[in-house]
Write a structure and sequence with these properties.
The chain has 13 helices and 12 strands. It is elongated, with a radius of gyration of 34 Å. It has about 400 residues and is α+β, with helices and mostly antiparallel strands. The strands form 2 sheets. Strands 4-5-10-7-9-8 form a 6-stranded mixed β-barrel. It has a two-stranded antiparallel sheet with strand order 2-3. It has 2 domains: about 180 residues, no CATH class; about 140 residues, no CATH class. Helix 1 packs across helix 11. Helix content is about 55%, strand content about 20%. It starts with a helix and ends with a helix.
């Protein structure tokens, strides 16, 4: 018997039991749709995190004071004073793998402009900080090296600060704002960046010359952080090694001494977050994949019922010349048709559900072609795997016994 006739017989058998066939493929539909949706959510989260890290500067390197041991007690890194302006100067002048370097000190307090006030931190940085953090000026200008040398009372502010201190749409450029009684002139406004993947407002930012914050606000001579960016993301490890060598030399550390500073790169953060999102995506896909297994068991169950119901038919067909392979192929085609049809419907529903989640819940969604193909391939294999045994049982029936079956 040729394949066309077997295909027609399988289609006719399914058409005679439309409701049962649909209920059988329902498990496959739910399984495929769930896998596609869960993978889309997981991959969307991963892409969103990567985009946010890229916006912050994927080749950014953060250098902080390291915790040290005093009297057998490890000190908090924030209480250490191991980073100095001399370290910043050495990194700026001696490194070969850094594109930009900026010191960083921060002071928290209250910003006041006329009758409006807002709690914020003023970050003392260098002019290269904008390049490191991928920030840009929307209006006005960045403070200059001359402002840094003179510890000028100048600042650049983000959109959130503008909205809270100048709510009536006034132009903030040239206006004076006070921070803990220190007056500062606004010289520039940063282009908005919105919230990052951690939920932090990137526009709630005030930048001032680091010398101004160190001398006029904190009265300190040490740095809280040093930010840098490697020439490229691929050179981050080289840049990190180079920074380590220079700082250990500046701090006169012996070979057996621990570093009194900590270096972290965006590459490390990206790798950690990607590992976490991949784990969550795999977990979600496995949970959704259970539906495919349940759907496969449903196919096996219904095919068993079908074989039992059609025992006399099988006997009659075998008695007029149908071979065991023909019977096997017929029932196997039925199982595969159920799983493939369910897979197609599941793909459509999964893609539709993903876009609904994106538009209603506003979650980042990213549907990869391989996830669709994988889901479809798995449901096809499921149909073959779970449909084989009932089909084999039908093919092995004795024609005489099958005809006698009541």
């Amino acid at each position: 018997m040729n394949g066309t006739n077997l295909f027609k017989i399988a289609l006719r058998a399914l058409a005679n039991n439309k409701l049962r066939a649909f209920l059988t493929m329902l498990g496959i539909i739910i399984g495929v749709a769930s896998v596609i949706t869960m993978l889309a959510i997981g991959q969307g989260s991963k892409k969103s995190i990567q985009a946010q890290i890229s916006e912050m500067g994927s080749n950014m390197i953060m250098i902080r004071p390291g915790g040290n041991m005093r009297g057998g007690v490890r000190q908090n890194a924030s209480s250490m004073q191991t980073l100095t302006l001399a370290d910043y100067e050495s990194l700026r002048n001696e490194t070969n793998f850094l594109a930009a370097v900026s010191p960083s000190v921060s002071s928290a307090g209250q910003l006041i402009a006329g009758d409006n006030n807002y709690p914020a931190s003023v970050n003392g940085v260098g002019t290269e900080f904008l390049e490191i953090r991928q920030l840009s000026i929307e209006s006005g200008e960045m403070f200059t090296e001359a402002d840094i040398r003179s510890a000028a009372k100048a600042c650049v502010i983000g959109k959130t600060i503008v909205d809270n201190l100048f709510p009536n749409g006034q132009d903030p450029i040239g206006r004076i704002i006070r921070f803990n009684q220190v007056p500062m002139r606004v010289v520039g406004v940063l282009k908005p960046k919105g919230y990052n993947s951690m939920g932090a407002d990137q526009d709630e930012i005030v930048l001032a010359p680091y010398t101004t914050v160190m001398k006029r606000m904190l009265a300190v001579t040490y740095l809280q952080n040093i930010f840098a960016s490697a020439l490229s993301e691929d050179m981050t490890d080289y840049a990190t090694d180079e920074v380590t060598t220079i700082l250990r030399r500046n701090h006169k550390l012996q070979a057996t001494d621990e570093d009194d500073f900590t270096i972290r790169s965006q590459q490390e953060l990206s790798s950690m977050l990607n590992t976490t999102t991949d784990l969550m995506t795999t977990l979600l896909a496995c949970i959704a994949g259970i539906s495919l297994i349940v759907g496969g068991i449903g196919i096996m169950n219904i095919m068993y019922v079908s074989v039992t119901e059609r025992t006399r038919e099988i006997g009659l067909r075998m008695s007029v010349g149908a071979r065991g392979i023909d019977i096997l192929s017929q029932f196997l085609i039925e199982a595969i048709l159920i799983s493939i049809t369910g897979g197609i419907i599941g793909v459509i529903i999964g893609c539709g559900a993903s876009f609904i989640v994106k538009n209603v819940a506003h979650w980042p969604i990213y549907i990869q072609a391989w996830s669709v193909f994988l889901s479809f391939a798995v449901c096809t294999v499921t149909g073959v795997f779970f449909g084989w045994y009932p089909a084999k049982k039908a093919a092995d029936l004795d024609p005489i016994e099958a005809i006698r079956y009541e």
